[in-house]
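Milestone 3.1: sequence recovery, worked example.
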C-alpha cells in the first residue's frame, strides 16, 4: 500500500496526466488497451482481464463490510455477453487513473481514509477511497453576478445550535452553507467524539449504562459513537438551563431542508405561542416508529401533532422546561442512545422494560407534520456514514459494530406507514401534501 501511494505521489509530483497501475503477474496483450482506457474519459477505469477461471480484476458487488459479494451481473460481463464500460464498486490489479481530474486528488492507498473501518487490504482501501472522492460540495457563488444572501437571524429562538464533529469538516461546510443561504444564524457546537473517549474518561463523568439495554434492531449494547452523540445533546440541554434560554432550535449536521423551511417553522412557532400550548419538545425531523394509527392533531395549530413513539434527534425545538425535565431524569447514570431517551420520558413510554428507570414521565412531545427536515442519507444509501452505528461497543474496543443491510431493509418494510395511520388531518395544503409524498 505504501509503495502504491509512493508511485501515486511520484506521478503527481511530475505532473503526469495518467498513471497506470499493473501487478507484475498481469499481462496486457492488446496494444490498443491504453488508448481504449483513455478514450473512456473516466477518473478510474480498468480493462477486464481474462483468467482460466471466472476470476477477473473487478467486482460487481460489495458487502457492507467491504468484502466481495456475488451478483447476477458479474458473469455476463466476465463472459463478454455484455460489452461496454460499467460502473462497479471495485477494480484492482490493473487500472488507469486520470490525474487531471479533481476527484483524483482525493484518491489514496495509504493512509486509509479517516472513515475507513474495513479490513486493512489494499484493494478495498483504494475502492473506499474512490467512493469517498465523489463529493458534491455546495455550489460556489458566481464571480461575475453578485449573489443575494439574506440577513441571518435566529428565527425568534434564543439560540440555534448546530452539532458537528470536528473531524466531519465536509458536513460542517455543507450545513453552514445551507443555513447561510436561508438566513439562519447558528452557534456551532463541537460534538463529543465518543470514539476518542476511554474508560477512565467515561468513569470520570459518572456515566453508567442503563441496566440490560440492548439496541432493538441489532441486540447490541451502546456504542462509543452513541455515547458521544448523547453527551453532545446533553451539553445543549445544560446550556439551555444554565443560561435560562426559553426556547432553542437544535440541528445535527446530516440533514436536508424542505422547501420554505424557515418560514414554515416560524409560522408554526407563532401559532404555538398564540394558542399558549404547553410543550417541552417539538420534533422538526424524526423517524416515526408507531405506524399503525394516526397521531392526534393539535387543535388550532396547523401542521402539529402529539408525537407518538419517535426516533432521531435530527432537528428539534426544546424549551427551558423541556431541558430541565431531560436533565432531571439524570440520564448519565442510566445511559442509552439519545434517540431512545425522550420517548421514555413521555406519558406512554414505548419500551416498557425500561420505563421503571425513569420517573416522572411527563415530557410533552409534539412533532411537525409533515416534517421540515430529512436525513441526507438513509441507512445503506451510497455515501451513508454513521458515527453511531459504525463504531465499537462502549466498554470493549475489540467489539466493532456496523449497520446491517438486511436488517435495515427489514426495518424499512416494517415501518411503512399504513394508510389508516397517516396524519391526514394536519395536511393543510397541496405544498404540504407534496412534501409528505417524499416519505
Amino acid at each position: 500500500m505504501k509503495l502504491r501511494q509512493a508511485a501515486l505521489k511520484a506521478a503527481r509530483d511530475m505532473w503526469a496526466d495518467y498513471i497506470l497501475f499493473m501487478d507484475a503477474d498481469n499481462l496486457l496483450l492488446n496494444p490498443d488497451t491504453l488508448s481504449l482506457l483513455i478514450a473512456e474519459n473516466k477518473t478510474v477505469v480498468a480493462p477486464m482481464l481474462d483468467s482460466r477461471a471466472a476470476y477477473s480484476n473487478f467486482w460487481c458487488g460489495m458487502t457492507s463490510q467491504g468484502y466481495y459479494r456475488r451478483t447476477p451481473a458479474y458473469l455476463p460481463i466476465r463472459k463478454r455477453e455484455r460489452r461496454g464500460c460499467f460502473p462497479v464498486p471495485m477494480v484492482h490489479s490493473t487500472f488507469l487513473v486520470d490525474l487531471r481530474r479533481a476527484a483524483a486528488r482525493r484518491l489514496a492507498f495509504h493512509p486509509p481514509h479517516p472513515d475507513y473501518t474495513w479490513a486493512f487490504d489494499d484493494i478495498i482501501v483504494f475502492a473506499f477511497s474512490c467512493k469517498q472522492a465523489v463529493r458534491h460540495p455546495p455550489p460556489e457563488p458566481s464571480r461575475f453576478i453578485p449573489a443575494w444572501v439574506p440577513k441571518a437571524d435566529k428565527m425568534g429562538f434564543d439560540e440555534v445550535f448546530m452539532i458537528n464533529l470536528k473531524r466531519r469538516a465536509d458536513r460542517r461546510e455543507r450545513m453552514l452553507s445551507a443555513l447561510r443561504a436561508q438566513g439562519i444564524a447558528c452557534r456551532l457546537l463541537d460534538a463529543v467524539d465518543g470514539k476518542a473517549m476511554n474508560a477512565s474518561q467515561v468513569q470520570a463523568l459518572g456515566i453508567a449504562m442503563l441496566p440490560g439495554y440492548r439496541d432493538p434492531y441489532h441486540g447490541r449494547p451502546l456504542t462509543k459513537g452513541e455515547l458521544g452523540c448523547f453527551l453532545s445533546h446533553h451539553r445543549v440541554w445544560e446550556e439551555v438551563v444554565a443560561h435560562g434560554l426559553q426556547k432553542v432550535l437544535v440541528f445535527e449536521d446530516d440533514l436536508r431542508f424542505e422547501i420554505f423551511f424557515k418560514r414554515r417553522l416560524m409560522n408554526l412557532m407563532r401559532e404555538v405561542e398564540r394558542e399558549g400550548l404547553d410543550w417541552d419538545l417539538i420534533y422538526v425531523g424524526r423517524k416515526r416508529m408507531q405506524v399503525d394509527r394516526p397521531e392526534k392533531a393539535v387543535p388550532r395549530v396547523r401542521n402539529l401533532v402529539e408525537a407518538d413513539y419517535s426516533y432521531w434527534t435530527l432537528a428539534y425545538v426544546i424549551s427551558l422546561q423541556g431541558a430541565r425535565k431531560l436533565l432531571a431524569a439524570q440520564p448519565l447514570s442510566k445511559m442509552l442512545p439519545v434517540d431512545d431517551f425522550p420517548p421514555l420520558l413521555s406519558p406512554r413510554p414505548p419500551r416498557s422494560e425500561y420505563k421503571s428507570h425513569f420517573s416522572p414521565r411527563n415530557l410533552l412531545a409534539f412533532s411537525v407534520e409533515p416534517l421540515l427536515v430529512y436525513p441526507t442519507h438513509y441507512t445503506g444509501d451510497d455515501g451513508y456514514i454513521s458515527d453511531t452505528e459504525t463504531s465499537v461497543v462502549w466498554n470493549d474496543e475489540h467489539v466493532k459494530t456496523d449497520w446491517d443491510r438486511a436488517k435495515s431493509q427489514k426495518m424499512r418494510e416494517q415501518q411503512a406507514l399504513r394508510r389508516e395511520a397517516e396524519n391526514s388531518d394536519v395536511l393543510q395544503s397541496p405544498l404540504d401534501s407534496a412534501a409528505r409524498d417524499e416519505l
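The first strand starts at residue 18 and ends at 22. DSSP finds twelve helices and 16 strands in the chain.
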